[in-house]
Design goal:
There is one protein chain. With about 325 residues, this protein is an alpha/beta fold. It has two domains: about 180 residues, 3-Layer(aba) Sandwich (Trna Endonuclease, Chain: A, domain 1), CATH 3.40.1350; about 90 residues, Arc Repressor Mutant, subunit A (Orthogonal Bundle). A six-stranded mixed sheet has the order 1-2-3-4-8-10, with helices on both faces. Strands 7-6-5-9 form a four-stranded mixed sheet. A three-stranded antiparallel sheet has the order 11-12-13, with no helix packed on it. Helix 1 packs antiparallel against helix 2 and helix 8 crosses helix 9. The longest helix is centred in the first third of the chain and has 27 residues. The relative contact order is 0.12. The model has no long low-confidence stretch (mean pLDDT about 95). The structure holds zinc ion. Zinc ion (ZN) binds next to loops.
Amino acid sequence: MIIKSFAPSPLTTGLQALVNRLQPTHPQYHQLQQELKNKEAGDYGEQYVMKELQQIALLNDCYILHNVTLPSVLPMQIDILLIVPNAIILLEIKNIRGIVHFKNDPRQLIRTSDSGEVHVFTHPEVQLEQYMQGVKHFFNTQQVSIPIYGAVVFPFNNVNIHREDGRLPIIMAKELPIFLHKHLETSKETKTMADIKNIILSHLKHRTPFPLCTYYQIDASALQRGVYCENCGRFGMQKLKIGWHCQMCQHRCRDAHIQSLKDYYMLVGETITNRECRDFLMIESEHVAKRIVQKLQLPRNGSNKNSRYQLSGLLVNR
Ligand SMILES: [Zn+2]
């Protein structure tokens, strides 16, 4: 059963906003656009494997979690974590197409795309070993000893894999039932799965790379300002008494500013002042800007003109 369901990675959502607000003439535009494509493909692969896992009857009583980060001295972002009787299984999903070569000494993943372009990636085995060590260390600190297994999973058959000998299994998504069966057969339950689940859920870390202008060293003044029209894809919707109006396509939307404030949070900063809000949403009236942030019930630090409104709440439960 799924206890932490699939959600697009914050970096994907942030990159979508960034690419949308950046002019195609910006020097980093094409690199960011490519990075966004890779991230979207990665998310798509993870979502697909989550769906496949849900179909596996063997896992009905086990726990499935998407995107897990636990306290660790090493960087950790586990694509999928499974809690099965007396074991934890980590899956590293790689949605890469083309010809991939797993090279040893040093370990690298080299991909040749259909057009002949060569890219070098971190070897997923190295990543996975690091996560397995991190999880093992985490459970040691919890005084829990549990076997940890891992596999690199390619979701689709659009890849031609060449591999020298390696340490961890590399499998296709369709092989997951066989792979899992092996681990579920040999395990003897010593610590209940519910205990493991509770330990993990109470220690989950939520890390985001925001604000992306800092992350990618982009001057925020390069971003297109204004409220985005979801109908025609232009910026600069006009504020009406109630809602927003696009002069280009006549589309009206009541809450169009919310996405723009989310963009601001993901790209520029965690908090916003009245002036920054007017500037980013391109509205003139101080009073209108005040009403917007007040209506959203954003937590406020400071008083009067120096008030800064906290935007982080916009990304959850809305
Ligand atoms: Zn429009």
